[in-house]
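Hi team,

Filling in the usual template for the complex we talked about on Friday. All components are listed, including any nucleic acid strands or ligand strings, so the model treats them as one assembly.

SUBMITTER: L.P.
PURPOSE: interface mapping
COMPONENTS: two
RESIDUES: 713
SEQUENCES:
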Amino acid sequence: MNATFRHFTLAFLLVFIILGLILPGEGIQAQEIDPAVLIVGIVKDQQNQPVVDARVVLAVDGENDPVAETITQEDGRYALVLPRVFPDTLSVYIERSHFQEYSLQLNLNEIRELGAGETIVMQDVTLQRQISPAFWIATLVFLLVLALIATGIIHNTLAALVGITVLFGVSYLGPILSDGLFIFDFASSMRYIDWNVIFLIMGMMIVIAVVENTGIFQWLTFFAYRVSGGRTWLLLPILMLITGIASAFLDNVTTMLLMTPITVQISLALGINPLALLIPEVMASNVIGVSTLVGTPTNILIGSFGDISFNDFLVNLTPGVLMAFAGLLVYSFLVYRRELVVAHDASPLLMDKLAERGQITEREQLRKAAIVFAGMLILFVIGEQFHMLPAVTALMGATVLLIWIKPDIEEMIEAVDWTTLVFFMSLFIVVGGIQEVGLISMIADLIGRMVGDSLLLTMLAVTWFSAILSMVIANIPFTAAMLPVIAFLTATVPGADSKVLFFCLSVGAAMGGNGSLIGASANMVTAGISEAAGYPITYSYFIKKGFPALLITTSLALVWLLIRFL
Amino acid sequence: MPGVICPIRGGPSSQPTIKRAIALAKEKNLDLHFLYVVNLDFLAYTESSRVRHISEEMHEMGEFILLAAQEAARADGISAEADVRHGEVGEEIVGLAQELEADFIIMGRPLGEQEGDVFSIDRLERFIERIESECGAKVVLEDEVEG
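RESULT (copied from the run log):
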């Protein structure tokens, strides 16, 4: 059997190699065709970003029939292939929805060069934006989606789906009334979906689903109690660290879903107010999660868009995160100093129950998950050497776990939060809508003019703008919308090419979540469980405790970024 | 022996309700039954895929809260049963009251209106009428205290 397999493999390899040698590659084919007469160039927008899908037409002045035409590629480049015979008076026309039409007449020299069979490289073309009714519709749709998410009238995913339905409805039916109502077609909208983000989140969800079933969180929390011996001055930092470190590698919501019930139980056993542990825990989760690429959904978005690796996040943010954590710890002790006084000796009955809960339930599963997770971390760290996207690592890790552990596959697939994935895909399209019509360019232009050439001012503006806005609007759509703006500022502000502004956005968007109850999903989940245990966390309570924490943690992380990048 | 049902959430606001239930059970010499209902409505807008796992965690937390209440009853000289159920709070209270043919249901009276809360003042009155007509149990309200 083995011999047969080896023979088959060898045969396959040989056939593969032979075919590779015999079949001509693209390069060979290109050599063989007649050299074409070309007009090549690049089309950009006012932010110096390439314009894709612009229609480039070469035509005789005043005539409708094009001599040649093409569309611009992802990098804004185009190449017009001319016929062997062409007229003497030619103009290049460039059209693109949401931009003013551009035209340029070729001069006699250029026509002669073309006639001699030479390729002409045109000067870069900068298209000017055009405000059309589509601009206002896409903008209103984006604001509507933000409002629906903020108010919670409907589910986040449904809000984003409503948004894309309106965008497509207007794009396909609107042009019957006016061409100015066209936003984008389905194929163009798909370009805005970042599949690296989608697959990274999906892979991590499967990994988390395996890990959460092992009882590791319950064990760690009880371990914190045992190590501290019930002394709250020791228990608090240990719990904050456990929550924070878990949040740096898993998502914050899952971490708090698992940490909150057991933390409530420890608090009740010790006779202290659970909020004295829960609020610092969730804030630590929001702060320390920033230090890795997979720690927060906003970091996943930023890392993928800004091409920032796992190592970049770790190296550039961890010291700042540690400073912020130290500040948060001191603040938590000050704010909860009274509540942290143990009211009575721990109840033996309740402690027995806690000890029973604080067990690893799936030891073998945990061992395998730990090995795979360690492998994933190594791949996250060294993956950039092989240009391996984090999504690939996450998918590989998830698949290995599923094969090795052999869990109930239906259960694992159920553990993938499909509504969140649909939310992300729909959100990318909604944000793509405002990118397409030029709103993002206008905002980038405006911020660019406000901050001028000052990197310091830009860092301050991006960090605090993100932090304050993340308090009141969901930080995921906010971050998704800000990414092209940050890319523009990175390209234009001197010294920003270190990608520091992406790190400022990361800090602001995540630590801003500490400023209000609705600032982060983890806050809402913690509040839900806490209320179910009879300890409600109101909006005003959270702002009172959270806003000073936002100021402290964001300031400290920003100080680090200033030290490192200025 | 039919007895007293005391649905609780835990926390300081439930303490007067627990004390009242214990006192009533002692006074009437009735069985005492604490109830905790796991309701995951708060997950509706966040993490729909985590329902199964978080439901188990909440169940454990409910058992723990009930254990603390049972301990309080034991300290007061009576033993109490405890039950964690999953679902809509009102339905589960009615269900348990019917199963046990309870004489009394001791509940906390909310301090203020809370949207969507089964114990909000308006809904509470209708709920009391429903319990009393469907189960024949008398509902006793105890003022909650500030948490």
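MY TAKE: Helices of chain B lie at 15-28, 51-75, 89-100, 121-134. The beta strands of chain B are 3-7, 31-38, 80-86, 104-109, 138-143.

Thanks, L.
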